[in-house]
Write a structure and sequence with these properties.
Elements (H helix, E strand, L loop, with lengths): L5 H8 L17 E5 L14 E5 L10 E9 L8 E5 L2 E6 L4 E7 L4 E7 L4 E7 L4 E6 L6 E6 L5 E6 L2 H16 L7 H16 L1 E3 L7 E3 L9 E2 H11 L4 H11 L12 E3 L2 E3 L7 H9 L19 H11 L23 H21 L33 H21 L2 H19 L2 E2 L4 E2 L2 E2 L2 E2 L18 H12 L32 H13 L3 H18 L22 H15 L1
Antiparallel strand pairs: 1-2, 2-3, 3-8, 4-5, 5-6, 6-7, 7-10, 8-9, 10-11, 12-13, 14-15, 15-16, 17-18, 19-20
Length: about 600
């Protein structure tokens, strides 16, 4: 394994920065710069203009455009093509063809465009409303122009001579970020570096959260801190920036309800913890489908699966020993650098324990001891065919998560010397495991979800996740492992599909109804290891890493037959990037 210096890592990332799958952006900034293609998607290079937009919570990018077109035009009246994209600047034209104009950031809220040397050019701006503006650059004009963009997408234009300083400052931001990039096996290093860039690119500040940094799933479409995403993202961040990893958990655990439920999302405007908190377009969609969760008189709690303890344990194991901060130390709520505030750790475990109790006290409608999903959103698997039937739904994945979390809580309280609480969580884990085993259908050969007495026929990857308990009877575990390699079940070319190929609901492209998701694969890698199948765990980790490399990046989800990005999947996706890094680190150990 070669130790790549920071400059070499940045060089490995540059080929991925295409302004399509990877927008030009800056950690903490909401500004996105993407390719503007005159003929629309699929038109070949060169890119001769860019589009500028803001990343906003629950608003599609097309509604957040600042400049529909930003072009740099030479003295001959022809647009200068984009010739190179680096983490810190976009280059238009080239020194060998008469000049170079570059675009960079002037802090998180502004762009700077400047001409180098004796280049003369024009900056032509077309606003979202069609208004146009032309600004001269170079000798006889401004050396550079700053475009300051506020949260309302109002632009302030100012001439400036500080373009080279802005380029330098932006380069420093990225250099410092890449200084932390994990060093892994040579064949995994380029994608690891790109995934590390994705995590840095997806950092935003959330209003009302002080200086806390949220690593969002994607600045294209997912601008908020989703609870489940935060757990997976923290697990990847821990390999290079444990402090930032803890910040994700701190934000996810910061706003429990009075009865202990953790919210689904922490976002710009507050939290999303109930169907009453859904954005208007989501509520309208539910009304069109005749869903009772759109009825304000029937609010449904919205959360995410209980994996907080799983994530916290892994992050703390990477953060070094906990020790009390001294007065005056620059420590945030979760701790700073290698210093982890033990009081924060205790609060985190207490919050998780209350959340775990919430599942059993408030999400077990039939009182059988097996909590249920009250809404598909709370599962993280929104469009899975297991939710085509009635709700609430008891699902084998939820049972497995609850067993895993109670065992982590048992371990925590035992370490604290609280034998009573440790036993309570151990006893509940045992009871939940017994209930989970009752969901095994020997005839079907897999675990089956149920809504009350109605058994759900869909055969989805949730049926494999009880491997996470590490405590299944040997015959059941071996049957699940065999299913992973069976072409009629989950043995696709690029595995693991989220629905078995033999299931009538299988679709290679539809979200959660067949495509491969890196988080499910990563959980199955952990489950195989816990269940005594270390060789199979390594094989799945290798195949998952190869999938991301083959597919060209950490997309939201992948077609299991081609290994490419599914058509409707988001690119530069946070948890795919984070979990690739985690798998790469494991494979390189």
């Amino acid at each position: 394994m070669m130790a790549h210096p920071t400059d070499a890592l940045i060089g490995l990332v540059t080929p991925f920065l295409d302004l399509v799958a990877a927008p030009f952006t800056l950690p903490r900034s909401r500004i996105l710069v993407l390719a503007h293609r005159e003929g629309g998607p699929g038109v070949a290079e060169p890119v001769t203009a860019v589009r500028v937009a803001l990343a906003e919570y629950e608003r599609p990018l097309d509604e957040c455009v600042v400049f529909e077109r930003l072009a740099v035009v030479g003295t001959d009246g022809a647009p200068l093509p984009v010739t190179r994209v680096l983490p810190h600047r976009i280059e238009f034209g080239a020194t060998g063809t008469g000049g170079l104009v570059t675009l960079t950031f002037a802090g998180p809220h502004a762009l700077s465009v400047g001409a180098h040397g004796d280049v003369t050019a024009e900056l032509r701006l077309t606003a979202a409303d069609g208004g146009q503006q032309t600004i001269g650059l170079g000798p006889g004009h401004a050396a550079s122009v700053q475009l300051r963009i506020d949260a309302a997408r109002v632009v302030g234009v100012a001439r400036s001579g500080a373009h080279s300083d802005h380029e330098y400052d932006t380069a420093i931001v990225w250099t410092q970020w890449f200084d932390r990039c994990p060093r892994v096996r040579d064949d995994l290093q380029a994608m690891t570096a790109f995934c590390w860039w994705v995590l840095g690119a997806n950092i935003v500040e959330l209003p009302g959260q002080g200086s806390a940094r949220a690593v969002v799933p994607s600045k294209i479409g997912y601008v908020g801190l989703w609870q489940w995403d935060a757990y997976f993202i923290a697990v990847g961040l821990r390999h290079g920036d444990p402090e930032l990893a803890r910040e994700q958990l701190d934000l996810a655990l910061r706003y429990p309800t009075a009865d202990g439920q953790l919210p689904d999302v922490v976002h710009d405007e507050g939290v999303l913890a109930s169907s009453e908190d859904l954005p208007p377009h989501d509520r309208e969609t539910l009304r069109r489908h005749g869903s009772s969760v759109a009825d304000p008189n029937v609010p449904v709690p919205l959360t995410k699966p209980p994996l907080a303890a799983w994530a916290l344990r892994r992050v703390l194991e990477s953060s070094g020993p906990c020790r009390t901060a001294h007065p005056g130390d620059p420590v945030d709520r979760a701790g700073s650098g290698d210093r982890v505030d033990p009081e924060w750790v205790d609060r985190a475990w207490t919050t998780i324990a209350r959340s775990q109790d919430w599942w059993f006290a408030h999400s077990d409608a039939d009182g059988d001891g097996m909590p249920e999903y009250g809404h598909p959103y709370s599962s993280g698997l929104d469009d899975s065919p297991i939710f085509d039937g009635p709700l609430p739904l008891a699902s084998p994945d939820l049972g497995a998560y609850l067993v895993l979390q109670d065992r982590e809580l048992e371990r925590h309280f035992a370490e604290r010397g609280d034998a009573t609480e440790a036993k309570r969580h151990a006893d509940r884990a045992a009871a939940t495991l017994a209930g989970l085993l009752e969901m095994w259908d020997a005839t079907a050969g897999h675990f089956v979800a149920h809504a009350g007495a109605e058994r759900i026929r869909s055969y989805a990857a949730v049926s494999l996740l009880p491997l996470l308990t590490g405590d299944l009877p040997a015959g059941i575990a071996s049957t699940l492992v065999a299913a992973l390699g069976d072409p009629q079940q989950f043995g696709t070319t690029w595995t693991v599909p989220t629905v078995a190929t033999s299931d009538p609901d299988f679709s290679a492209e539809r979200m959660w109804r067949g495509p491969v998701w890196v988080n499910i694969n990563a959980l199955l890698v952990d489950g195989l290891r816990r269940s005594g199948y270390p060789g199979e765990a390594v094989e799945l980790a290798e195949r998952t890493a190869l999938l991301v490399i083959h597919g060209g990046g950490p997309h939201e989800y992948f077609n299991p037959q081609t290994g490419q990005k599914a058509q409707t999947a988001t690119t530069s996706f946070g948890w795919s990037a984070a979990l690739f890094i985690d798998l790469a680190a494991q494979l390189s150990a």
